[in-house]
Write a structure and sequence with these properties.
The protein is of the alpha/beta class and about 250 residues long. The protein is about 40% helix and about 20% strand. It has a four-stranded antiparallel β-sheet with strand order 1-2-3-4, with helices on both faces. The chain has a four-stranded parallel β-sheet with strand order 5-6-7-8.
């Protein structure tokens, strides 16, 4: 499912085919409904013209410039003829058969990512099996951000979006302010970021925090699990933390 395997054979007529296609560098957010399940796509277009397509911040595909044009058109529900016209205007040596075949394959890949069934790909860009050549990311895919008051955290989240970093994990820390945590998730979701929260079971299960985070739109909640041995975990995370983990998992589920 790596788009670069079949897209780079198309050659650009200039150093900046995406400018010809009217696609600016940045982060684009889409949502698709397939079989009653919503999949969030992030298409990041880097300044060099290449891109990354992420599905639910779990599966990633590296895109050549031609792949960016095709994927963006598909995700924006454009007609095939409009997508192919933009591709032909941006690249040379494009045969009608090659362009149409690549477009069908991009559609099929996006459809598979939107409704993966039992075959959801878990792809790591640092895995040598992902590609024979190392993929050098222009920017990271995610960042861990310590919890802070909304007026301090909101500008950081906004800068992440503008810099093209689609995935944030808000680190709750000890005795987090529940309202600050909920506000952080709300702001991240408003921007279009994938929003995670990471913290101790005891802190996350306090009051209605998990339910409040769910209402705010949190995508993942990560509970610290430092050891299967309760005495080791509690020595690191705090007294009684280990026995609270099962309850936290059940409420998150």
């Amino acid at each position: 499912m790596v788009l670069k395997q079949f897209i780079p054979r198309i050659s650009p007529p200039s150093a900046d085919p995406l400018e010809r296609a009217g696609i600016a560098p940045g982060l684009y957010h889409y949502q698709r409904d397939a079989e009653g399940t919503y999949t969030r796509f992030h298409l990041r277009v880097d300044a060099g013209g290449t891109g990354l397509l992420l599905a639910n911040a779990t599966a990633a595909a590296w895109l050549a410039p031609s792949g960016v044009i095709l994927a963006k058109g598909v995700l924006e529900a454009e007609r095939d003829d409009a997508i192919l016209e933009r591709l032909n205007a941006s690249f040379r040596n494009v045969t009608a058969d090659t362009a149409a075949t690549d477009l069908r394959r991009v559609r099929r890949i996006i459809d598979n990512l939107a409704a993966p069934g039992d075959n959801y790909p878990l792809v790591n860009l640092s895995d040598p099996l992902f590609t024979p050549q190392a993929v050098r990311l222009e920017k990271p895919l995610s960042a861990d951000v310590p919890l802070a008051a909304p007026e301090r955290l909101a500008p950081i989240l906004e800068r992440m979006w503008h810099q093209g970093i689609p995935h944030v994990t808000v680190v709750a820390g000890d005795a987090p302010n529940p309202m600050h945590l909920v506000r952080a998730v709300e702001r991240a979701e408003d921007l279009g970021l994938i929003a995670d929260v990471r913290g101790r079971a005891g802190d996350l299960t306090a009051g209605t925090l998990i339910e409040d985070l769910a209402m705010a739109g949190v995508d993942h909640i990560n509970v610290l699990y430092l050891s299967a041995m309760s005495e080791v975990h509690d020595a690191l995370a705090g007294s009684g933390e280990h026995e609270r983990i099962a309850s936290a998992f059940a409420r998150i589920h």
